[in-house]
Amino acid sequence: xxxxxxxxxxxxxxxxxxxxxxxxxxxxxxxxxxxxxxxxxxxxxxxxxxxxxxxxxxxxxxxxxxxxxxxxxxxxxxxxxxxxxxxxxxxxxxxxxxxxxxxxxxxxxxxxxxxxxxxxxxxxxxxxxxxxxxxxxxxxxxxxxxxxxxxxxxxxxxxxxxxxxxxxxxxxxxxxxxxxxxxxxxxxxxxxxxxxxxxxxxxxxxxxxxxxxxxxxxxxxxxxxxxxxxxxxxxxxxxxxxxxxxxxxxxxxxxxx
DNA sequence: ATGGTCGGCAACCGA
Length: 257
What we know:
6-stranded mixed beta sheet, globular
């Protein structure tokens, strides 16, 4: 089984990259964030032609998440909390026997702002959602763009960004509560070294060429899946394109059974 | 080298 996550920064602008990648890599599922498309305009046909199903929740201009999969997503949930989420950042379901959660955690802007507090609240809501609805002893995948770098080796300039949004102790504490609950950061488990990033900010000149990036996208899994995980890697192809995306694909492979 | 990011969507906002 092969699972990937990718912040698309517009699924329509990135559609050829995504379809090419699906055809070449043939994953069982691809979790995407920042689709930036309303549901009525989601490019369903392109995925159908490539042999994939899609479940999505979008909104105008911002955010938006989708799960693209070989077999259809079942028991789909499009809201993190009771009632209707004001922002399209969460979609979950089940593919075969496997429960899957796809998240686009708020970026947070800057500590002390309302956006930053919203980010922390959102992560707390996700945590309580897990505690309420899932058992850490059962298989579960939680992946997406968490907008948090955990350790100094997870961003190019830890000193420079210390205490800012994306590298702040309050965010990191919340990330570690996911780990305490029973989720494992699969990339980190398989790759103890630093300098491996999933995001390079467009605003840093030649940031990708100079590897000035951040590791803020994750594939997290509970113990029964961790032991089946054979390989985790980052595919920088979309970031190296002439018309690059700011994030890259993060992929994990598992033994079946 | 007197410039220097994207995408959505129509003037800026968010990342």
